[in-house]
Design brief:
The protein is α+β, with helices and mostly antiparallel strands and 84 residues long. The protein contains 3 helices and 3 strands, in the order ββαβαα. A hairpin with a 4-residue loop joins strand 1 and strand 2.
C-alpha cells in the first residue's frame, strides 16, 4: 500500500493545508465538497506537493514534521512557491 503526504492550497483563503491519505483522489473530493472538518471553509483546494511512503507510520511522521515547523516559508519551499 502507498500513502501520501500532501500539501494543498486555497487561493480564496491564501492558506495551505498539510495532510496524509491512502487515496489522494478521494481525499481531494472530500476537501472540495466541504466534507473535511478543517478545509470545509473553501472549495478551491489544489494539490501543490505530494510525497509517497510505503508505510502509514512514515507518512504520519512526515506530516507531523511539516506541521511542527509552523512555517509558511518552509511549506512554500516544498511547493516551489508556484501559488496563484
Amino acid at each position: 500500500m502507498e500513502y501520501f503526504v500532501y500539501i494543498v492550497y486555497s487561493k480564496a483563503l491564501d492558506r495551505y493545508y498539510v495532510g496524509h491519505s491512502q487515496d489522494l483522489d478521494d481525499r481531494m473530493n472530500r476537501h472540495n465538497s466541504g466534507r473535511s472538518k478543517y478545509t470545509k471553509i473553501a472549495r478551491d483546494w489544489e494539490v501543490k506537493n505530494t510525497e509517497r511512503f510505503s508505510a502509514r507510520s512514515e507518512a504520519i511522521g512526515r506530516e507531523r514534521d511539516i506541521k511542527r515547523k509552523k512555517s509558511r516559508k518552509y511549506i512554500e519551499n516544498l511547493v516551489g512557491k508556484d501559488v496563484g
